[in-house]
């Protein structure tokens, strides 16, 4: 039982770190957008500078899908191996 709790905690910490990392990247992008004027904002948007937001969303989605599946696997292992 203790091993499963430790595994859940480790998986949770990894997903939290991934979420914080993606949030930092989004904040940096938004900071760049705030620093430039309206013309600069249009140029950044035309250069596809903010395509990374969709990749950050994909990364976050994969992080939580993997965490959810691992949680289910560990829970099933706990049920069948106890």
UniProtKB/TrEMBL annotation:
The chain crosses the membrane at residues 6-24, 59-81. Pfam families: DUF5362. It comes from the Bacteria. Keywords: Membrane, Transmembrane, Transmembrane helix. The keyword Membrane applies. The keyword Transmembrane helix applies. This is Uncharacterized protein.
């Amino acid at each position: 039982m203790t091993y499963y709790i430790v595994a859940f905690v480790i998986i949770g910490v990894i997903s939290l770190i991934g979420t914080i990392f993606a949030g930092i990247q989004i904040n940096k992008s938004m900071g760049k957008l705030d620093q430039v004027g309206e013309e600069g904002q249009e140029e950044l948007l035309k250069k596809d500078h903010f395509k990374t937001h969709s990749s950050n969303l994909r990364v976050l989605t994969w992080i939580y899908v993997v965490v959810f599946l691992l949680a289910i696997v560990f829970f099933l292992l706990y049920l069948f191996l106890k």
